[in-house]
## 1
Amino acid sequence: MRILVVEDEVKVLNFIRKGLQENAYTVDTASDGEEGLFLAEENEYDCIVLDIMLPKVDGYQIIRTLRSKRIKTPVIFLTAKDTVSDRVKGLDYGADDYLVKPFAFAELLARIKALVRREKDKPQDVLGVADLTMNLLQHKVQRGTTVVELTPKEFALLRYFMEHCGQVLTRTMISENVWGYNFDSMTNVIDVHINSLREKIDKGFDQKLIHTVRGVGYVFEQR
Ligand code: CA
């Protein structure tokens, strides 16, 4: 776990760094906004602890710049001013959480852990297997450069396959997870949908992604 701390007050910076290091985090630090922004853009962090009032570039500007460049690292901002407008401004600019100074280290640690966990649990926006990609936000599927039009059911089915790439999926698992219920007469419905999905994403491509496991079900993978 790697954390960036941007803070110009030496005492506060050392206090945070020491606490994080004692909890086995790797810590990078910056004491002005310019250096902080540079590090945040250059490296991958699990979380950034960001003071607002900083020399050269302030914390608001840093968050805005990062978000405009689609750097989505979770940011906790530190604010000395406990006014509603300051907090709202930071969150509006794309910060994930805030802490009002002075704070207890345990509080900061708990917030960092919660943010990192939330980030890990977040579903991915784009799934990819071989040259097939699924953009969940845009509801768009592409095989190579070919855009594939899917029905909502086919889309749900493909998503389930892609999220369980390499696992053997029985028809029972597929019907429970994609249709939300399971009964024997579903078998045919599933096979019909899988055949139509195959037509759309595998037909005409050398590398097939949907494979039948005889007597068991299906596996989705690059072979
Ligand atoms: Ca400051």
Note: Helices lie at 10-22, 33-42, 59-68, 84-92, 105-121, 152-163, 171-179, 186-201.
## 2
Amino acid sequence: MYKNLIDGQWLAGPASSANLNPSDTRDCIGQYAQADAAQARAAIAAATAAAPAWGLSTPQQRFELLDAVGHEILARKAELGDLLAREEGKTLAEAIGEVARAGQIFKFFAGEALRPAGELLPSVRPGVGVEITREPVGVVGLITPWNFPLAIPAWKVAPALAHGNAVVLKPADLVPGSAWALADILHRAGLPPGVFNLVMGRGAVVGQALLHDERVNAISFTGSVGTGRQVAQACAARMARCQLEMGGKNPFIVLDDVDLALAVNCAVNSGFFSTGQRCTASSRVIVTEGIHDRFVAAMVERMRGLKVGDARKPGTDIGPVVDARQLEQDLAYIDIGRQEGATLAAGGQALACNEDGAPGHYLQPALFTDTTPGMRINREEIFGPVVSVQRAKSYEDALALANDTPFGLAAGIATSSLKHATHFKRHAQAGMVMVNLPTAGVDYHVPFGGRKGSSLGPREQGRHAAEFYTTVKTGYTLA
Ligand code: NAD
């Protein structure tokens, strides 16, 4: 039984849930505690008590702690990557990459603890000095999704602690193992009791307790648009600070002048790797007429060679879908695409088991062609390995199609034209733009986030994380 960490103590919950391997549903990773609202409130109380002293800890203390956490994560990346692949279903290589990223994030924010920024200015009034400083926000509630079980908790917890806040982390129910491992590392690194609390449990119980508790000064949420809306409403009602990272329907434009192999590599990577379960995945590929048919033929050919199988088996390109519910949703959208008149050019079949006979949630990646912008498969986030291709008359037409979406997280273009690449970077309505690169795959030291329906509030990661995890104070002194 893996327990919750509250006020420096490991506590069992009133219930527990089994963490199952989506590559082989007979494999149970462990039983993880499920907290009730009272346990969530106990964690908030512990964080509230611990926040003032942690807020006054020295930059050196915070640096050493976060650096040690980053060091341990990196040293154990093979083992933690195996756990991550086993509980979430991304391939071992992808999982180890995610763990390494989490370690690097802790190292980066260890450095940020040593670099608190301030400004000293002359006043507009004679004899007065002005200083601008940043202080911790206090207690932050962090609510994370299942698709990056370690990296997303890391990119919220590390800046929160670096900037002197106390934390209550509520990870996704489907993947508590990686978050538990992170809590264990933080605990053993010597954080004072209550500074970091792990409360595993259901969103409707633990998540709601965090949203509605006056003692939680700020909520950082990553997840679906529907839940994000509830988070924003709850925070607005009690004037709490909030940061939302939500869904995407990210476009990837392929222009006539492109190197075809590069375009196919980018589209396959962004559409299908990590089983398409990335908020930055490109599920809409917009292709100009001169290369459309050659591009589709090359995609179909490349997809034939993709091996779907056990996430931890060498040679697997695409692991299983995370659970039965998500698989059902993916298959429902594949049906919707067919009914809307799109052509299923490749894939789309569920496989009950892998080549070794292990039962899992397997899906052959799907490519739709002959799609139009109004189709639901082009408007709604599916969150699976399902990509649709749209035909565009020109670059200008492709850009208009790319921006025709309620989302705005990432957008990509494959082209050899500097003119079009430059224009696209300026005019794509997205928080992140990629030229001749997959839309998924980002650096850990720069801001991450989107616009329109994808994000709300300040950016995550890099130096910009301070915007959310600190509050600004302006001091005036008569000299
Ligand atoms: P989700 O919204 O179902 O759950 C996210 C978290 O919110 C979970 O911890 C869940 O338990 C909790 N939650 C659920 N209901 C709640 C409630 N009523 N009150 C409080 N908390 C509640 O999302 P998911 O299915 O775990 O994740 C997939 C979604 O996350 C996709 O839409 C994806 O695009 C998005 N995502 C976005 C980013 C980004 O940075 N933009 C990154 C990864 C995933």
Note: The CA atoms of residues 74 and 100 lie 6 Å apart.
## 3
Amino acid sequence: MHNIYVVEDEDNIRDLVVYALNNSGFKAIGLLGYKELKNEILKKKPDLIILDIMLEEDDGYAILEKLKSSEEYSEIPVIMLTAKTDEMDKVRGLDMGADDYITKPFGVMELISRIKAVLRRTGVSKKPDSKNIVEFKNIVIDLDKRVVTANNKVLKLTYKEFELLLYLIENKNIVLTRQKLTEEIWGFDYEGETRTVDVHIRTLRQKTR
Ligand code: CA
């Protein structure tokens, strides 16, 4: 699941975008400005940032500049949101290293297809040869193919089992509560029992043994 940070100080736009992305298979977090972005980014590097230009303190250009001049974060793809129809704004954002821009008002479907296009493009250009592989002990996960092997044997995992296994491995040094796992894998509005997590972990243990 791709993590997307949405930096926008206008509540209704930010909420709408976050809501739409979370309903489209992304994991989106809404942030008000640079300060909040910095806090989140230190915790977890997102796969993409949607960055509004008109923000209260540091504007989108200032934030873009900070990102692009940092060694660690310059690779994160950025889509700029602009309310202006001025061509110069678009050019300026792209010149500064933004991957795309979208002009307000925009449709949710358009935004999502732009995001997918940027993720495809940057994913390919960043790693032309190397495969997207995660390894942990006897387990190898091919992220592109969504194939998991344990002891060189391909495992049959459900969608949630795959997500859960990947999440557990990516966060292997962190203590994870049932609640946290439920939120991450099943979503905040999940109304089932937290026991579901136990069941999935038990199944995963058996399958990856
Ligand atoms: Ca704004």
Note: The chain has two domains: 3-126, 133-207.
## 4
Amino acid sequence: MELSITRSKNLKSKPDDANLGFGTIFTDHMFNMDYSLDDGWQAPRIEPYGSIEMDPATMFLHYGQGVFEGLKAYRTDSGQIQLFRPQENLKRLNRSCRRICIPEIDEDFALDAMKQLIALEKDWVPGAPETSLYIRPTIIAMDPFLGVRASHTYRYFIILSPVGAYYPGGFNPIKILVTSDYVRAVRGGVGEAKTPGNYAASLLAGEKAHDAGYTQVLWLDGVEQKYLEEVGAMNIFFVIDDEIITPELNGSILPGITRKSVIALAKHWNEKVTERKLSIDEVIDAHAAGRLKEVFGAGTAAVISPVGQIKYGDQVITINDNQTGPVAQKYYNAITDIQYGKAEDPLGWVEAVT
Ligand code: PLP
Ligand code: COI
């Protein structure tokens, strides 16, 4: 497939790297490609960033048939631009596609197209510490039709956004609330797919958590409401004694690439890391016994995010004196050093763009 490039004639002014928030600024160009039953995926093109025209009956708008990804491009000290495990995101995109009945894309082609878009926008990759260019590949159902079935037409697009820290407090402990009132996902549902409905489902609990002074919700399993699953935009790790524990992938948790990277690094360093069912009661008991050393989240947007406080019902536990602990710090440093090209890449995770 031939990728066409149409350059924007009205380039935007770039933001100040030192004051970037998350997800409000978009670059000059985007990638678009369309799918139809007759032609498959076709007409890949990089063109000026702009609106997508939609019929009000567009199926995505009504039934949410869509999937997305989130990854980042990093600027190294020598000015190279690089990606972190982008093949993993494209594999997960296709797994999400299968779950939501969306035709899969060619991963090699998609990676090449993504790299071409980022190369064209390389001046948008910020250089201040802890900043990056967030990449949002998305596929949406485009048929104008009100019946419930899988669409016959789709749009795949990629937009880019220069970003700083996801949580306004940066790399500092956050407070999370365990909710028993709502669940995010259930066995057999779409929890492990990166699909918009999961995020819509999380909003009300998220708002209530905010109102109570908590940054995010820590979800329990949707069947027994007993086992820990994940946080709104990241997976979760517990350090009990000298063991790093994260909930096992069970179909309702998003299989995070940062999560997978923490586990791989722990194994590489011969540290004790376990994927298993972990109940909220076990965490509270471990805390009471002085065995819960640290809790931290892991995600692309959130990177490694220490958790300083967890509330569950009437119980509030404070972890590591509400300070960033050595384990979270070590994984944060190791992962970001690889991402920004400051350290060796022992597991071959970095993919050069320029
Ligand atoms: N869980 C949820 C619900 C997420 O939205 C994310 C972010 O993508 C993650 C976990 C972490 O996944 P990853 O490390 O691939 O970004
Ligand atoms: C990510 O970490 O990429 C996410 O998708 C989290 C959130 C912005 C949805």
Note: The pocket of pyridoxal-5'-phosphate (ligand 1) is lined by residues 70, 230, 233-235, 254, 256-259, 298-300 (CB under 6 Å).
